[in-house]
Amino acid sequence: SVTSWRYSGNPDGTSEQTREVQDRIGRFALIVFSISGFMLVAAITTRLIAGDAPARILREQSIHFGAELLAVAGWRLCSGKRQLPVPLLAASDAILTIALCIAWALLGLDSPARDPIEFTIMLATTYTLILRSVMVPSTFTRTLWISTAAVVPLLVFFIERGAPFSPEASPEERRVFLVFSGLWCAVAVLTAAMLSRLLFGLRERIREI
Q: What is the pTM of this model?
């Protein structure tokens, strides 16, 4: 058998359970690719209808294309026939999740000041964390630290950008926006961790039956 306790918290993990983890990481990457790809096509189509030049659109969506390639790489890595060692699975899970959330934060680099890109970044980040907690078997602690690391790029970007999409807002109102953004990130992190704890516990109980 393959010991998977370092990844899933189960000291009696079998090769079948480790394979299940690998498959679920692959499905997580594939679902992210599908949802992100749909939104990418929608964004490009909207810009084309608005009359923007195709070259400019492709240049400004380069980070989004990069996120798509990252998701495909994660899916291909985990969907192959070869069973990956547990340390590589653990690293792939964490790196994929955090790197995707870094990409979502970087989406705002070329956004105009009046574009409320913060809301898009917030939704993309939180949906990624919740999706991972549902798809990938993981302990509360592991999901907590991965999710916490994943929201740091978002918070750094929000602070640096300073919420310029509302020029009429006072400095105090912008600080309030940043505070509540941080609170929503905390809620997303804790929700993901609690979902992992609930689902991980259910899987362990099912295996005991």
A: 0.86
Q: Give the Å distances, CA to CA, from 184 to 50, 134, 153.
A: 32, 19, 14
> Measured in whole angstroms, how far is the alpha carbon of residue 122 from the centre of its chain?
10
Using alpha carbons, select from 50, 30, 192 the residue that is nearest to residue 100.
30
* Contact by Cβ (8 Å): 102, 82: no
Q: What is the 3-state secondary structure (H, E, C) of the chain?
A: CCCCHHHHCCCCCCHHHHHHHHHHHHHHHHHHHHHHHHHHHHHHHHHHHCCCCHHHHHHHCHHHHHHHHHHHHHHHHHHCCCCCCHHHHHHHHHHHHHHHHHHHHHCCCCCCCCCCHHHHHHHHHHHHHHHHHHHCCCCHHHHHHHHHHHHHHHHHHHHHHCCCCCCCCCHHHHHHHHHHHHHHHHHHHHHHHHHHHHHHHHHHHHHHC
Residue that is written with structure tokens 């574009």 in the block:
115
Per-residue model confidence as pLDDT tens digits over 51-78: 889 888 888 889 999 999 999 999 999 9
Instruction: Quote the CA–CA distance of 163 and 148 in Å, as a whole number.
Output: 22
**What are residue 64's phi and psi, to 5 degrees?**
-65, -40
